[in-house]
Amino acid sequence: MRYLVAIFLFIAATVSAQEEGNDIYYDDFICPHDFGFFPHPIQCDAYYRCENGEPQFKLCGNGLAFDDRNDTKEDCNYLFAVDCEGRPELEPAISTTNCPNLYGIFPDPVNCAVFWSCWDGEASRYECTPGLAYDRVSRVCNWMDNIPECKAQRDAMQQNFACPAPGELAATGSFSRHPHPDDCRQYFVCLDGAAREYGCPIGTVFQIGNIDGLGQCSDPELVPGCEDYYGDLDLRVLRGLGLK
Ligand SMILES: *[C@@H]1O[C@H](CO)[C@@H](O)[C@H](O)[C@H]1NC(C)=O
Questions:
Q1: Interacting residues of 232 by C-beta distance below 8 A, sequence separation 6+
Q2: What is the rounded CA–CA span in Å between residue 66 and residue 25?
Q3: Residue 87 — φ and ψ, nearest 5°?
Q4: DSSP for residue 96
């Protein structure tokens, strides 16, 4: 009888130790098939590699999660691309400069137009064209006024600019274009009194037209004050990279 009690206490202690540790490794994982890759029961960035029915615990890169849709594939993908339903736990985040996790795509906390693509903790910087900002939900560049997180930055940019009152510009009607006060490449389009910020294609700047409210993107050499906007940048290289 004393022997049985001792065994019972031992089992209880083992279970509670596992629960306290939180990083439950399920050493007792049973391979559902002899070979393949199978999700951890509760942790989305962990999985098991089974070989001859022997499980081996594995982790995805920090910020990635295990895609369990095909158990013949060892597939770790961006967190946003994986369905973690029912296995919500993750390893603690490991961060480096500009990367909250070692892997992922992250908005810049200060500049709404900038986002960082992180791979193994190495950050690559990307910037949307002027007037656009990185959309946290769809993860593409989108109009700044469609992105709630960018409201403060948008307001700051536009506070020095007000569209003419409707009807004020006889020549252009309800649609007009206006230069940005701080940036040669950017301009505002007013439609029925509402401003939206646009950017000229790379290599060009906004040229004020002969009539107030008109203008177009032009060669910097044609726009006094903006001749050196691109400095020594080799525009052919930038276009080749698709950084328009
Ligand atoms: C799983 O992946 C393997 C290897 O790429 C492929 O041959 C197989 O068709 C896939 N199965 C399903 C159900 O998609």
A1: none
A2: 15
A3: -140, 65
A4: B
Residue 30 CA to residue 50 CA, distance in Å, equals: 9
Which residue's alpha carbon is nearest to atom 6 within ligand 1?
72
Radius of gyration of the chain (CA): 28
| Coil vs helix vs strand at 156 | helix
0.70 cut: is pTM over it? Answer: no
pLDDT in tens, the chain (244 residues): 344 333 333 333 333 333 334 444 556 899 999 999 999 999 999 999 999 999 999 999 999 999 999 999 999 999 999 999 999 999 999 999 999 999 999 999 888 889 999 999 999 999 887 768 899 888 888 877 788 888 777 777 666 678 887 667 666 667 888 888 778 888 988 888 788 888 888 889 999 887 778 889 999 999 888 888 887 665 555 454 444 3
**36 Cα–ligand 1 center, Å:** 12
- The C-alpha atoms of residue 32 and residue 180 are separated, in whole angstroms, by 62
DSSP letter, residue 92: P
Q: How far is the CA of 75 from the centre of ligand 1 (A)?
A: 12
Choose which residue among 67, 69, 72, 74 to substitute to test ligand 1 binding: the one with the highest number of ligand atoms within 8 A of its C-beta.
Answer: 72
Q: Are 37 and 50 in contact (CB under 8 A)?
A: yes
CA distances from 132 to 88, 140, 163 (A): 33, 10, 19
Q: Is 22 left (phi over 0), alpha (psi -120 to 50) or beta?
A: left
